[in-house]
Amino acid sequence: MYCLQWLLPVLLIPKPLNPALWFNHSMFMGFYLLSFLLERKPCTICALVFLAALFLICYSCWGNCFLYHCHDSTLPNSAHDPSIVGN
User: Fold this and answer.
1) Distance (Å, rounded) from C-alpha 27 to C-alpha 77?
2) Would you give the DSSP letter of residue 63?
3) Do residues 49 and 11 lie in contact, with contact meaning Cβ atoms separated by under 8 Å?
4) Res 72: pLDDT
5) What pLDDT shows up at residue 82?
6) pLDDT tens for the chain, residues 1 to 87
7) CA-CA distances (angstroms) from residue 30 to 65, 68, 83?
């Protein structure tokens, strides 16, 4: 279970508010996970626990899934503010 300390914090990294950065964030997270799985080769139990947690977060649409954006979830009101998002 030592390898879970490197995998679980990945689920806590927030998705950016700006929709233009979602693709870059998804690619970074995907490449990080792929490189981690190839380099460290976590045990089967750790990999299954992480994949189950990732599946539950993405399936429930809590808003922190980096694989895709849930269509039912709305952006915070501050995401539409031009002074925050930028010009």
Assistant:
1) 26
2) S
3) no
4) 54
5) 60
6) 677 788 888 888 888 888 788 888 888 888 988 888 888 888 888 888 888 888 888 888 766 676 666 665 555 555 555 665 554
7) 12, 12, 30
Domain boundaries, the chain: 38-62
Query: For residues 15 and 1, what is the distance between their CA atoms, to the nearest angstrom?
Result: 26
Residue 43: which residues within 8 A CB-CB, separation 6 or more? 1, 3
**Of 12, 28, 25, which is closest to residue 62 (Cα–Cα)?**
12
3-state secondary structure of 86: coil
Whether the CA torsion 48, 12, 61, 37 is positive or negative: it is negative
Query: Could you say which DSSP state residue 18 is in?
Result: S
Instruction: Name the one residue in this structure whose structure tokens are 């925050």.
Output: 84
pLDDT of 73 reads: 52
**Do residues 33 and 23 make contact, with C-beta atoms less than 8 angstroms apart?**
no
Dist CA 3 CA 46 (whole Å) = 6
